[in-house]
Amino acid sequence: MAQEQEQLVENADSIIRQLQSQLQEMQLRDIVLREQLERTGAAQRSDSLRRSRMKARIDSLRNITPGAPLVIDGDTLFTIYARKGGMLAEDRVKGIKKQIVSHGKRLTFFTDSCTIFEGEFYTDIMIGSDVLMSISDEDGLWASCTRQELANEYITIIEQKIQNLHEEYGLQKKLLGLLSIFLIVFAQWLAIKGTMWLFRRWKFRLLRLLLKQAKPLSIKEYELLNVHRVGIIIIIFMRVVLALIIFLQLFISIPMMFSVFPETEAFTYTIFGYIWNPVKSIFSSIIGYIPNLFQIIVIVVCFRYLVKLLRYITSEISNGNLKVNGFYADWAQPTYVIVRLLLYSFMFVMIWPLLPNSNSEVFQGVSVFIGVLISLGSSSIVGNVMAGMVMTYMRPFRIGDFIRYNDIEGFVIEKTVLVTRIRTRKNDVITIPNSNLMSAQTSNYTVAAHDYGIVVHTKVTIGYDQQWQHIRQLLLNAAEATPGLEKKPQPFVLVTTLDDFYVEYEINAYTRHSEKLSAIYSTLHQNILDSFHSSGVEIMSPHIFAHRNDLELQIPPTEKS
Description:
- With 561 residues, this protein is of the alpha+beta class.
- The chain has 16 helices and 15 strands.
- The protein has helices at residues 2-41, 47-63, 89-104, 137-142, 147-169, 171-213, 227-258, 265-318, 332-351, 361-377, 379-394, 434-439, 445-451, 468-480, 517-534, 557-560; strands spanning 68-72, 75-80, 114-118, 123-127, 130-135, 217-219, 222-225, 402-405, 408-415, 419-424, 429-433, 442-444, 454-463, 492-498, 502-511.
- It is elongated and about 170 Å long.
- The N and C termini lie far apart (123 Å).
């Protein structure tokens, strides 16, 4: 659609130019006819008066007719107003300019090759055998002179312009240009050789001098840069400087070579533009971005000191110096992490509109693409983070607590926003995602032992031939002999099952040492064995298959009588 509109505009302009040219031609013919009528009907009038009137009419027509100026290298030679047949004045100027430039840029030119050929209707200005332009009577009328006088005026102007062009593009200029290029190339070769010689001569001297003063760069206990690495960096830096110096020399010499000849002079500005335009654009962008940069600096500084204040309050709460009702000390650090993340997110939202090209579609598209990738690939991560935050404020366990998760028992050694690590009694470190801990049942033995005491319990099965009071006492004796079990509340024995062939007893005792459960159970079992063996009671689950006719009753001896 836009191309069609441009084509219509060009066609309309062409039609307007043609109509203007036809109107000018008609007006010029009217002036010629008037002149002929004056010659025949008013012979008594003087010739000078007739010429002055004709000149006034031409001048009035020239005021409303712009004409087509012939401009070469910014120099206006003359202006053409009249058409030549069907050729407009603009087309005539284009042809004349092409001829002048073509002859002026030839290697050889002789001034006597420009001649004037007088014809019946036209006066031709020729260069050798080529017709440069034809001057008609209408051209003379526009110039208020005859065509012969106008041709003599134009040929002088054209000869001078062609001579100027020849001096700039001729053979002598080409030879001088080649000599200049040779000198520039030779000078550049000497400059590169000299630069390389200076580099080889001073490289090791400067390296030794800098290494004597260089010190290893360390961050805490990690040696980031030792002397050897510093030396490598210095050598690389010196090579970069050498390359920049040679590039700067070439950046000066190559455009100089292109500027020698007028035909390639435009490449000089093009090459300079390749370097200067990006540098100029970068500097102008930096200068234009300074107000936004100051805003970003102010925002970052304010939020930085706000985070420092928050960190100070967090440390005070964690150390117990500052107490807040209903806010536990172990909440301080995770709360600090959450609030800091929110503050940095808010800071990023404030800085985002101030970033360069933040409103561009490409920048926004890349940001959306990265956001989609993060959201699709971090669903499990977000679930673990949320579970970690919930567990932080639920406080189901703390670091150092002895807990049970499914079939795993151990001490909590680390809690992060993503995972919790447990060390078992066998010193196996198990990593559990927080989302799994949230969805499963966990038991905190440390909290239970501190607040209520953990019930240590174990079962034995004894036949019906033993008194239950005796078994009860033996189990209580074993519990009392076990270190780590509490005296109060007192241990107790439960008869849990009356099975077909035996009775099941369960000893229960309290302990507040959750970290020693395995040792307590082992000692309790040993004491039970010792207590029963010393009393002659066999720990077993008898299974009896017998006829009642020959078998005694399986009851204690005191009850048989």
